[in-house]
Amino acid sequence: MTHVTSLANNRRLVIDHHGRTREFAALWLRERSPDAETLDPRTGQRLIEAAELPLDLAVESAEARDGELHLRFSDGHRGVFDLDALFDDSPSDPPQRLWDAASAPRPEADFAAAVEDDAALLAMLEALHRDGFVLVSGVPTEEHGMQPLIDRIGPLRRTNWGGIADVKSVADAYDLTMTQRGLEPHTDNPYRDPIPGYIWLHCLTNAADGGDSTLSDGFMAARLLRERDPAAYDCLTRVTPGFRYRDDTTDLEGEGPLIELDSQGDPVRVRYSNRTERVPALPTEELEAYYAARTAFYRLITGEELTLHLKLDPGQMLIMDNYRLLHGRSAFQLAGGVRHLRQGYVDRDSTASRRRVLRRQATLAPTAGEPA
Amino acid sequence: MTHVTSLANNRRLVIDHHGRTREFAALWLRERSPDAETLDPRTGQRLIEAAELPLDLAVESAEARDGELHLRFSDGHRGVFDLDALFDDSPSDPPQRLWDAASAPRPEADFAAAVEDDAALLAMLEALHRDGFVLVSGVPTEEHGMQPLIDRIGPLRRTNWGGIADVKSVADAYDLTMTQRGLEPHTDNPYRDPIPGYIWLHCLTNAADGGDSTLSDGFMAARLLRERDPAAYDCLTRVTPGFRYRDDTTDLEGEGPLIELDSQGDPVRVRYSNRTERVPALPTEELEAYYAARTAFYRLITGEELTLHLKLDPGQMLIMDNYRLLHGRSAFQLAGGVRHLRQGYVDRDSTASRRRVLRRQATLAPTAGEPA
């Protein structure tokens, strides 16, 4: 049963549909009226100028029948809405699964399968979305071995440092990445705008002693910090340190909180980069609170409770969500052999778009093995 | 005269330097100690693990002499700081200059000069930073005519739609950009992550009747809205509509407020895209407040008070800050001739880096004409 009543001079409707009650603004319904004059059927682009609709727009008649809501608006427009769609609350993306060391998943994918097969590519992209990383095996151990899989998803992000680049020890290292030092857990390039979305880290050789990779889930760290030290959590969502990288030909600056929240108050991005952080000259009390909160977060992201250890073999590749995961490595000894990794960045929008389109196609396609 | 006193068990210093007094946290000084053990001299990267410094770190001795501050910290480290640098408040970037139609600047640059000469390139980039746009003349009227100037700044941003792309009317238009419709003032692609930083819009032919470009300064619109309708301003900084573009092969979604503020409460990005906005099913009161606020903002960005009109001639190009400016166009009639523009995107970080490095070099270089 569906029941419709109107309020506020017909500027609002209250709809009771199969026992669920919801209030709708006439303007909200009008600007998303699912017809070809209002929304382009191919792209969903809005064809009317929504801000020119009168703010007192009303519904002049409303009738629910056969699962549809038929409306006539005071501007003369008629629209037909699917009632179930109006009450559909399901998010457009599936939920992420936060993890600690004890519950850490080990999402895996096969390179050749993901390159050749849409279902395998979809499974890889859904694992990456859910867990924040995926381990890909069978990557050709060539300098641009990862490229065919990038080409399946979206453009490689080029920065002033180029496209796919080396991560290996060099004699005249100008960046800590190229030394034998261990690297604390960090996110990449918070001094950029845009910050890289996904990191693709591909192992060509890894014969050195040490050089293990570490991963920790920054969203899980944020959740634990909020539970255990709410003041520290609040501080890290509020204070925005700067981040800077500067050399003879480059001068990059960014700023943002270590834990960035969306409008619902949920973490959408973590930043952590000891090497490049530059805390501004804030009032001393605020600085001291920030340092205490930063230390609490650091203890979490470096502690064994959250740290997943793994060592990439040649032909393996990690794809990591640079808004969510922190990655690092232990120190290594080149006396033990060569360590040569290659790294590239891919944007978030192309990655998410590919996942959603593949999911849509998989949902529409008839199930394999079923009679046609 | 410089005078130093300590507070809070030596965890804070109060420095009086030439009549200005400021308080410093010992930890803040320690982690930016300008020596090669603490900060890499070439890149400024921090070499110590700041989060492992003790939170009760203190200054054991402090002495000011010859414009320098000599400190010994409780962890044994000694650091020497330039006192003027400690008190230097100048921002790393020059201020932006907001404009309305009456005060609108007309920053111009010559393509060949900017390609060949660093001083001309710096002037162009500083105008772009200050005014939010710059009009470049003398661009070769070839499909990739803008490329040599992009190569001077940073990589062209590639999206799933490619690199430099056509903006022209086509018979089977799947995007409103390619129709003859006028386009309301908007920012580009708020449904992407990352949102494009700078738009490069290059005119090859513009013989059609109409098709004038319009520009308005979104930061000026935000300032006026805050003065004239603070509730609307507050609403637009708080409510985050979604933005979506969807076709057979693409599914892009983003969200964010129409006026995005930084941690100091100043606008850092505007979003406006009537075509792709999708307002979520918020509580009805909040929706109605949002619609009223959106209309107030729309009146500003479409009103003659803020709108700059110009028509690109062949060989001219606009570079626009897509975080700040709104751009649109009037409708045009193809009966009058062909309208063919080309468009590309360049990132913010590479653009800002180039400007800062050129400024640094210009400041360091001896002034022309001076004796060596």
Overall outline of chain A: globular
Radius of gyration computed on alpha carbons of chain A: 25 Å
**Main sheet of chain A, how many strands, which sense, barrel?**
7 strands, mixed
* Mean pLDDT, all residues of chain A: 91
DSSP strand content of chain A = 25-35%
What is the straight-line distance between the termini of chain A?
35 Å
Seen as an oligomer or otherwise, the chain set is homodimer
GO molecular function, one term (chains A, B): dioxygenase activity
Keywords (chains A, B): Dioxygenase, Iron, Metal-binding, Oxidoreductase
Cofactor (chains A, B): Fe(2+)
Protein name (chains A, B): TauD/TfdA family dioxygenase
Helices and strands, with pairings:
The structure is a homodimer of 372-residue chains.
Chain A: E1 2-7, E2 12-17, E3 20-25, H1 26-31, E4 59-65, E5 68-73, E6 78-82, H2 83-86, E7 108-110, H3 111-116, H4 118-131, E8 133-137, H5 147-150, E9 156-157, E10 165-168, E11 183-186, E12 198-206, E13 209-210, E14 213-217, H6 218-228, H7 230-238, E15 242-247, E16 250-255, E17 259-261, E18 267-270, E19 277-278, H8 284-302, E20 308-310, E21 317-321, E22 325-329, E23 332-333, E24 339-346, H9 348-364
Parallel strand pairs in A: 7-8
Antiparallel strand pairs in A: 1-2, 2-3, 4-5, 5-6, 8-21, 9-24, 10-24, 11-22, 12-21, 12-24, 13-23, 14-20, 14-22, 15-16, 15-19, 17-18
Helix pairs in contact in A: 4-9, 6-7, 6-8, 7-8
